[in-house]
Write a structure and sequence with these properties.
The complex is a heterodimer of chains A (587) and B (470). Chain A is of the alpha+beta class and 587 residues long. Chain A has 16 helices and 26 strands. The relative contact order of chain A is 0.10. The model of chain A has no long low-confidence stretch (mean pLDDT 91). With 470 residues, chain B is α/β, with parallel strands linked by helices. Helix content of chain B is 31%, strand content 22%. Chain B has helices at 144-147, 168-178, 199-211, 235-249, 261-274, 288-296, 325-333, 342-346, 363-366, 376-400, 407-424, 434-444, 458-464, and strands spanning 14-16, 19-23, 26-30, 39-44, 50-59, 62-68, 80-87, 89-91, 100-102, 119-121, 138-140, 152-153, 160-162, 180-181, 189-197, 218-224, 253-259, 300-301, 308-316, 336-339, 359-360. In chain B, β18 (300-301) and β19 (308-316) form a beta hairpin. The radius of gyration of chain B is 26 Å and the shape is elongated. The chains are: A alpha+beta (587), B alpha/beta (470). The interface between A and B is large, with 88 and 87 residues.
């Protein structure tokens, strides 16, 4: 048992802690506040405390648990909402009321609930890490595979199907070091990545239903993306849209140092949202980690690790997992705050010198992998991290260190947001390095034509920005009709394609197939427009066509009617533009 | 020099005369056995005057105390410090309504001290996100640019980003005066916290509250610019503790006005630099985000409780710079912002609210069918887009002349002008209903052809667009 020697905010220095190891979890003070050892010097240990330290004084006891910060993994994780150190907020509310008081420890998973376990592995079989012992139907959507924990190996002595709580023994394993009880859960230290057999190259897109993302800047399953943007540019809405609509099996949403009301919104809306594929509530595949900005800063630091460890666990079962971290800047700031309290020599802008390494280590935990398992199951963790650069300036350390390791960059643009162009992803600044990797998939699953359409659309938008510079000097009227036509099409692309309302029932999700049809319609119109212009039709005439209203409302065409409506639109386009050409006297 | 009267055991406060160093607002005390982090101390000056302070750093044999007030007159030999064994608390009761207190919660109006059984810790515990109720009740402020474009809802925190010399106080006062739920006369009780503002500004608010009768339903905490800056660090917490009591124990709907958050942050920086901490941006402490969050996040609603706390913090952006750490960090915590524009002020528009950089993140929950009107989202988006386009055309026409614009662009240009002069502009006593504001919005969009109304659903255009006189 050690004693407190110094308290300064979330940092406590403890003395006389015998046998303390780095990153051991300790309990501080009479309330037993949870903390973690982050520095050892001689006989003193520096502890970052995950709870408010008000009232802690020198001389108070410090108890070392001897365990590193870890999470409990097992059935019951889905639909849960945790704080940064995996305390279930629902249980906290039942026990503590509406405000989170200190020193309360709650088991992360329901200890009384009985789960129907179906054994798959046979008694007497030799099993190794990752091998599936059996399954539990966790929610209607997700079959939870109970696996042999990493590092374990041996012969199954006993294993039986039946109804178990997570604290009951489901069987026994004869290992080199003796008999080990098998249960429905396992623990894993959050700061260490769970082991995998090998990583796979990215080749499948994470389809999100967001046009600007899927068409122009796609992220691969197992990839990593960063979304930096100033406040009000729609980071959170994009993260939530991805959490809602991305075609991953599991979503882990980490609200790291963000607004309480936003987490409430997720909690209020997710149970009512229906997954487009399975027609089940989205909450059944979702895990929320909510460490809001006013909750203790050290727990915020831990929250992203808690989130990614849970994500890796489901990946190991063979699922595609998407992890949204909103916002990694708050995580970095938590590191900075702790580092400042430790009086470490600061790096850039007061951030610790190890900021870049920590960020890189975190994103490196993303990936599509072959898991440790005899049947070579594959699974993936896709990481999408929001970054909140001060003043919207992307040159700051967190943005820069993140850009170095992520392969997709969705640059959010305040000027787009202020004119309510959402998602405010700037199409000229953003990039995705997965486009080449994913092209075979688009060819095989969508159309060989798609890559070309995408390229053309981007070129048009690029051309528009060049033309805009000229327009700023001489006005639109000075441009030749052909270039006015380019501006016209680029505007259609911006307003009718890139803009997408998260709040409209139909527009909120566009299937990849409908995206293809929409893009094809706009560029199809572009072809006919250029052709008509060459034959003497003016852009103003083309803009006046009633057809244009129909084109601008493509986004509201329901998925079910897409096939017929787009066919009709295509025919109408040919017909009306030909009509214009004829009346203009062209041949 | 002598060891203080150390009283072993609990209950009796321990007194020390072991001041080692006084630096800025900080007092360094030697030989202190075990001060609790955050403990409140009472400091007695050589001349008998008493001041309060709080422990910021406690280690074996040393306590660093932040003094609420000036350190003037303190010395090494004769200053004594008493450790109360308590963290900062505020006695709260219904009697607080209609009263004026100083920044530390002591009466300023000559009235009696608040005596109450209920003494709450002013550093509130974090609200469990699971207990929060999603704010969704539309507050009609009667100001079109807020109601239509940046809707305020109960339980939201929506700051006013302003600059020196802009009428943020008038806007705040107008909101306080007019804010109500639609189809309801139920008004808000007000908790007003002034941090480092001038007595003139404070008097303006007090007169406003008085003339509308709001003072009876208001609790006022005043820390003026002449008052100790260190008090400012606790003033908003006093105010929010009171607000929480009234909202969650007394079922009241509270509108908290905090002004000026810039002064609060300055005080925070003063302490940080006195402690020789590693500074973050522009000398502000690295934990300012967390600190501000513990203030702003105290807005909200709780499931199963009737009351609510809506926050309206005001901050003046130094040199109108929105990237300055104070507005920047605030914007990352609050649910949007109301942006007061100098350009509009110069054009003579009141309230000079620039809707483009303004934002209400909770707007969607508060608007639409059953709350405001089904066309609200579309009209708001269309106005945003049209105004943004119109402003672009304005900039363009300054270079190439209005004649070089296309016919549609000229309509946009006109819309931008009308939007400012008719929609945003209104009298300080003009209280528009949401229907009036939305209809006005339709009127502004008047000349645009249907095909340009891409943000509004066709059926709403049919239903709400004013029919042109034949």
């Amino acid at each position: 048992m050690g004693v407190v020697a110094r308290v300064s905010g979330p940092v406590v220095i403890a003395e006389e802690l015998a046998g303390a190891k780095m990153f051991d979890v300790v309990r501080v003070g009479t309330l037993g506040l949870v903390g973690e050892i982050i520095r050892l010097v001689g006989g003193t240990a520096t502890v970052q405390v995950y709870e408010d330290t008000t009232g802690v004084r020198p001389g108070d006891p410090v108890e070392n648990t001897g365990q590193a910060l870890s999470v409990e993994l097992g059935p019951g994780l889905l639909q849960s909402i945790y704080d940064g150190v995996q305390r279930p907020l629902e249980v906290l509310q039942k026990n503590l009321g509406d405000f989170i008081t200190r020193g309360f420890v709650a088991p992360p998973l329901d200890e009384t609930k009985k789960w129907a376990f179906t054994a798959i592995a046979k008694v007497g079989a030799e099993v190794g890490p990752g091998e599936v012992l059996g399954t539990v139907q966790e929610t209607a959507l997700i079959l939870h595979k109970i696996m042999v924990p990493p590092g374990w190996k041996g012969k199954i002595v006993s294993l039986a199907s039946g109804s178990y709580t997570i604290r009951e023994k489901i069987g026994e394993l004869e290992t080199a070091s003796g008999r080990q009880p098998l249960g429905l859960t396992q623990r894993w230290v959050v700061r260490i990545p769970r082991p995998v057999a090998r990583k796979l190259p990215p080749s499948i897109p994470l389809v999100t239903g967001q046009r600007v993302v899927d068409t122009f800047f796609p992220v691969a399953k197992g990839g990593s993306a960063c979304v930096p943007g100033p406040f009000g540019s729609g980071k959170t809405v994009i993260q939530q849209q991805l959490a809602r609509w991305a075609d991953s099996d599991i979503v882990v949403y980490v609200g790291c140092g963000e607004r309480g009301n936003e987490m409430t919104e997720v909690l209020a809306t997710f149970p009512n949202l229906i997954d487009p594929k399975s027609k089940r509530p989205l909450m059944e595949r979702t895990i929320l980690i909510a460490n809001t900005s006013n909750m203790p800063v050290a727990a915020r630091e831990a929250s992203v690790y808690t989130g990614i460890t849970i994500a890796e666990y489901y990946r190991d079962m063979g699922y595609d997992v998407a992890l949204m971290a909103d916002s990694t800047s708050r995580w970095a700031e938590a590191m900075r705050e702790i580092s400042g309290r430790l009086e470490e020599m600061p790096g850039e802008e007061g951030y610790p010198a190890y900021l870049g390494r920590r960020i890189a280590e975190f994103y490196e935990r993303a990936g599509r992998v072959v898991t440790l398992s005899p049947e070579n199951r594959t699974g993936s963790v896709t990481v999408v991290g929001a970054v909140s650069p001060p003043g919207g300036d992307f040159s700051e350390p967190v943005s820069q260190n993140t850009l170095r390791v992520t392969r997709v960059f969705w640059a959010l643009d305040a000027s787009l947001a202020s004119r309510r162009h959402f998602p405010s992803i700037n199409w000229l600044q953003s990039y995705s390095l997965y486009v080449g990797d994913l092209e075979p998939w688009y060819q095989a699953h969508l159309s060989p034509e798609f890559a070309g359409l995408r390229q053309r659309a981007l070129a048009l938008l690029q051309k528009e920005s060049e033309l805009q510079e000229i327009v700023q000097l001489v006005g639109v009227d000075a441009l030749p009709e052909r270039e006015k036509g380019i501006l016209d099409i680029a505007r259609m692309l911006r307003e009718d394609y890139l803009q997408q309302s998260a709040f409209d029932d139909v527009d909120t999700y566009t299937s990849i197939n409908k995206q293809y049809r929409m893009l094809r319609a706009i560029l199809g119109f572009a072809d006919r427009e250029q052709d008509a212009i060459a034959r003497g039709v003016t852009v103003a005439q083309l803009q006046g066509l009633p057809l244009r209203t129909k084109l601008s409302r493509m986004k509201w065409i329901p998925e079910a009617e897409a096939a017929t409506q787009f066919e009709a639109l295509d025919a109408e386009m040919t017909e009306t533009v030909q009509g214009l050409v004829a009346s203009a006297g062209g041949a | 020099m002598a060891q203080g009267k150390a009283a072993p055991g609990s209950g009796v406060p321990i007194e020390y005369r072991t001041v080692e160093r006084v630096a800025g607002p900080l007092l360094f005390l030697r030989d202190v056995a075990n001060a609790a982090y955050g403990e409140i101390v009472e400091i007695q000056l050589p001349d008998g005057e008493r001041r309060q302070g709080q422990v910021l750093d406690s280690r074996k044999g040393l306590a660093i105390v932040q003094v609420f007030g000036p350190t003037m007159g303190m010395n090494i030999e004769a200053t004594s410090v008493k450790f109360t064994g308590e963290v900062a608390r505020l006695a709260v009761s219904d009697e607080m309504l209609g009263r004026v207190f100083n920044g530390l919660g002591e009466p300023r109006d000559g009235g009696p001290k608040i005596v109450s059984e209920t003494r709450l810790e002013i550093v509130g515990n974090a609200m469990n996100p699971y207990s929060r109720e999603e704010p969704s009740e539309f507050i009609q402020t009667g100001i079109s640019s807020i109601d239509v474009n940046n809707t305020l809802v109960r339980g939201q925190k929506l700051p006013i980003f302003s600059g020196a010399g802009l009428p943020h106080n008038q806007i705040a006062a107008q909101i306080v005066r007019q804010a109500k739920l639609r189809n309801s006369d139920e008004s808000f009780a007000i908790v007003f916290a002034a941090m480092g503002i001038t007595s003139e500004e404070a008097n303006y608010f007090l007169r406003e509250f008085e003339s509308t009768g709001a003072l009876e339903r208001a609790v006022v905490f005043l820390n003026l610019s002449s008052d100790p800056s260190m008090e400012r660090v606790v003033t908003p917490r006093m105010a929010l503790t009171t607000a929480e009591f009234l909202a969650y124990e007394r079922d009241m709907h509270i509108l908290v006005v905090l002004t000026d958050m810039t002064n609060y942050c300055e005080a925070l920086r003063e302490i940080a630099s006195a402690r020789e901490e590693v500074p973050g941006r522009r000398g502000y402490p690295g934990y300012m985000y967390t600190d501000l969050a513990t203030i702003y996040e105290r807005a909200g609603k709780i499931k199963g409780r009737k009351g609510s706390i809506t926050q309206l913090p005001i901050l003046t952006m130094p040199a109108d710079d929105v990237t300055h750490p104070i507005p920047d960090l605030t914007g990352y915590i609050t649910e949007g912002q109301i942006y007061v524009s100098r350009e509009l002020q110069r054009r003579g528009v009141y309230p000079p609210i620039d809707v483009l950089p303004s934002l209400s993140r909770l707007m969607n929950q508060g608007i639409g069918k059953g709350r405001t009107r089904e066309d609200h989202r579309g009209v708001a988006d269309q106005l945003f887009a049209a105004y943004a386009t119109g402003k672009d055309q304005r900039a363009l026409s300054a270079i190439v002349g209005e004649e070089a614009l296309s016919a549609v662009d000229r309509i946009y240009l006109k819309i931008a002008d009308q939007f400012e002069s008719e929609f945003v502009n209104q009298r300080p006593d003009e209280d528009r209903t949401i229907d009036q504001s939305l209809d006005l919005g339709w009127k502004i969009l008047g000349e645009l052809p249907d095909s340009e109304l891409k943000r509004i659903k066709p059926e709403f255009i049919q239903k709400y667009r004013p029919k042109k006189a034949a």
